[in-house]
Design goal:
The chain is globular and about 35 Å long. Helix 1 (23-33) crosses helix 5 (153-165) and helix 2 (50-60) packs across helix 3. A seven-stranded mixed beta sheet has the order 2-1-3-4-5-6-7, sandwiched between helices. It has helices at 23-33, 50-60, 74-88, 105-108, 153-165; strands at 3-9, 44-46, 66-72, 92-100, 121-125, 130-134, 146-149. Strand 5 and strand 6 form a beta hairpin. With 166 residues, it is of the alpha/beta class. It has a single domain (3-165), classed as Rossmann fold (3-Layer(aba) Sandwich).
Length: 166
């Protein structure tokens, strides 16, 4: 099965940023460095382009293709919404990788909205360098989160890469 990668960056990141504190942008560079996803240069988008990206990718990505979705900062919100919408439309989401500070998790994790993705969601918190695996398609709260201790930003990115390549 083919895999494609769709990413969103926030206000202070860009696909060219190599700042390790902005893990998503560096993650995109790591994917390119490992020759994964030939179209990746065109697969990392601004956080405010969600509607356009949904329209374009539904026309260009086959439903037989697995999609790895990732995002940083405000792009994490877009990435999660993108994964949710594509999942609802029958596309196979392999995993969702969110790179963000823990405080902004509340921006997109609003219990009043049914954010459901039929895939594992990982939230990489750059403030304390831990990753949380959120169970997909389940109603859950913070007490049920799985904490994974990660030692450095480099390890965060390596862990994200391993998850994406599983």
């Amino acid at each position: 099965m083919m895999t494609t990668y769709v990413g969103f960056y926030g206000l202070f990141g860009s696909p060219k940023t190599l700042n390790l504190s902005e893990g998503m942008a560096t993650f995109a560079e790591m994917l390119r460095f490992n020759n994964i996803g030939k179209n990746l240069k065109n697969g990392v988008y601004p956080h405010n382009s969600l509607k356009t990206v949904l329209e374009v990718t539904q026309k260009t990505i086959s439903k037989n293709t697995e999609i790895v979705v990732f995002g940083h900062s405000l792009g994490a919100i877009s990435a999660f919404k993108y994964a949710r919408e594509m999942s609802r439309k029958g596309y196979k989401i392999k995993c969702v990788l969110l790179f963000d500070y823990v405080t902004s998790v509340s921006l997109w994790w609003d219990k009043r909205t049914a954010y459901q993705v039929a895939a594992p969601v990982y939230h990489f918190r750059s403030s304390d360098l831990r990753a949380i695996k959120l169970p997909g398609s389940l109603e859950y709260n913070y007490s049920k989160l799985n904490h994974l201790q990660i030692d450095s930003n480099k390890d965060v990115l390596q862990t994200a890469l391993k998850i994406a390549l599983k």
